[in-house]
Amino acid sequence: IFQADIRRALAHFGRTPFFRLLSRRAENDDDMIEELVVASTMLAERKTGAIIAVERAIGLRNYIESGIPLDATITHDLIVSVFQKTAPLHDGAVIVQEQRVAAAACFLPLTVNPQLSRELGSRHRAAIGLTEENDAVAIIVSEETGTISLAIEGQVERGLNAVRLRQRLKELIHEGRPAAVRPARQGGPERR
Prior knowledge:
By secondary structure, the protein is of the alpha+beta class. The protein has helices at residues 3-14, 17-22, 29-45, 61-65, 76-82, 122-133, 162-174; strands spanning 50-54, 68-73, 93-97, 100-106, 137-141, 148-152, 155-160. It is built from 7 helices and 7 strands. A 7-stranded mixed beta sheet has the order 2-4-3-1-5-6-7, with helices on both faces. A hairpin with a 6-residue loop joins strand 5 and strand 6.
């Protein structure tokens, strides 16, 4: 009955500095981030919808098990291929774990937040729902508009370009700073 509440409490507990120090740090995140940025911009140009979730300190095993296991090296070509409308794996999310594409066609929980904009479709709601329950980062590409968004801690940053997406991913993945403690920026994308 309290599964979602327990998961949120554990996610909050896992964000404490002590546990972040114990977590494994990836040594070559820049290559992974670059592949994610290139894939996202290519998908956006083609208006191909996508969700790419990146595991951080809290594991995403339950969601990985809901999809088709891949355990493949991250390349922009692989990610773009997965999300082609004729591909059998295009529905659902791709989950990145330890710099590898762990699985595709993964099911994510939809948010039940009634305050979200009606402009946000099921892709955005699934990415937000995932990030409400753990510390994952989710990249969303809208099929309707071709815009790139980023979901973190139940919030969404919309209208990112390649430069801004790369910068945010480095802040959130490479440097490992959670969004709640980063300094506020003037003129950045709107957070919803």
